[in-house]
Amino acid sequence: MKENENIRIIDIAKLAEVSPGTVDRVLHNRGKVSPEKRAKVEKVLKEINYEPNMVARVLASKKVYRFAVLAPTFSPGGYWQLVCDGIDRATSELKKFNVNTEYFQYNQYDRRSFDKAVKAFKEKEFDGVLIATQFGEQVIKLSKELDEKEIPYIYIDSGIKDQNDLSYFGGDSFASGIISAKLLLREVGLDANIFFAHIRFKYNEISVQMKTRELGFMDYLNKQDFKGKIYQVEVNPDDHTQSLAQLNEIVSNSNGLIGGVVLNSRIYELISLLDKMDKDLSSRIRLIGHDAIERNIDALEKDKISFILSQRPEVQGYDAIKALGNYLLFKQAPDKVNYMPIDILIKENIKFYNNYKL
Asked: Structural domain tally of the chain?
């Protein structure tokens, strides 16, 4: 018989010469069915290439699916708010399938905070997990525990190699580092000095993403016969005294333009520092930042940043939750790696980018 997605249970029953109730029990694997009758039904299903209406089946099942999200806390307008906005939108769309999402949030600069969030997560039962990967070692440990329980999990923000994650949604951090270096060298040249600005927080942690971006950045410099010096500047947002003196010295002792890069979304903290410098010095600095959050966009529009690289955080969160839902609800496995576009933003195109809504 030709495949017909609209075929009814009663039609299958007639073909198999059994009752509709028997067909229903076979299709939903519930109740007792004699081996002979089960064989008749399965033979007909095979002959007609029957595929059940998965949406109708899920809606009828009334099963509740619980997803956990391990992600950083955020301030209004911050990077992780954008990620969570995408997660919330996807969850809203999946609510008709009885999907609920619960957040377990932590301080992204404090691995002890991550451990507390994981502990709280373990006290409950979930069908799937979305994990932001700031702390590589802890994430790998948690992943192994989820593997043992056969609970699917998806990574966002940065991928971790050789794990059994269902999928990864986010940027290619190594490529992002390469692009940052390429853009910055075109601004300042191969002979210019460059500094990495590390924004200090209460806890001195460097995420997987930042480490990978720096590897990509340095890989590109090493392949381009870069002749300048590399400096590391630690910026304390609460006290600029030391970092201001260090930057003044770097620029004063350098010829021509200077390149600066911040490997996470907090380049706005560096802008606050540069605003305190003598303009003759700060005007020689060209900056590359990451993530189109409000404070970074403001600095870009004011020509204080040359380029911002963005990896569409809202789309990351949205796509990751939808993928987890499609996998558990409809048995649709996502691609293992799902890279977001690496958008290069400048003053002249940022307004068009901001007009884009998920």
From this structure: 3
